[in-house]
Amino acid sequence: MAEVWRPHVVVAAVIEEDGRFLLVEEHTEAGLRFNQPAGHLEPGESLIEAVRREVFEETGHYFEPEALIGVYRWHASERDRTYMRFAFTGLVAGYDPTAPLDAGILRTAWLTPQEIGAVRARHRSPLVQRCLDDYLAGRRYPLDLLADLPTKP
Prior knowledge:
four-stranded antiparallel sheet; alpha+beta; four-stranded mixed sheet; Nucleoside Triphosphate Pyrophosphohydrolase; single chain; 3 helices
C-alpha cells in the first residue's frame, strides 16, 4: 500500500498595533529568521486554539483571533515538505512578560511593513510577506468559515 501524503498544518498570526506588526526572530536550520508567531496544529486542537497557543508560547502575548486572512499552500523544496498555513488576525488581549518563549525564539519585535520588507531575505518563508500583504490589502474572512465537527464516539 502506498504511503499517504500529508501536508504539515500550521497556524500563524498577523498582529498589528499602531502600524507595527509582531514578529519573532528565531533560530532555524538556515540561521536566524523572522516569522509571524506560528506553529503546528496539535492533535485534538482546533485551529483557533492552536493559534492562541502558538502566539502565547512564542511571544508571551494573549491573542484573540477575529478573522481568517487566508489559507496558503507552500512547498519547501529544500526540505521536501508542503505546508498548509491558516493565517489569522486579531487583537492582543494581554501580555505576560515572565512567560518563557519557545525554544529557538531569540526575541519578539514590533516592525513596520517597511522594516519587514527590508529583512525579506531573512524571512522564514515567502508566507511571511504574502500573509502581511494580504492583511494590508484588507483580506478578512469570518471565523465561522472554519468548522470543527465533534469526534464520533
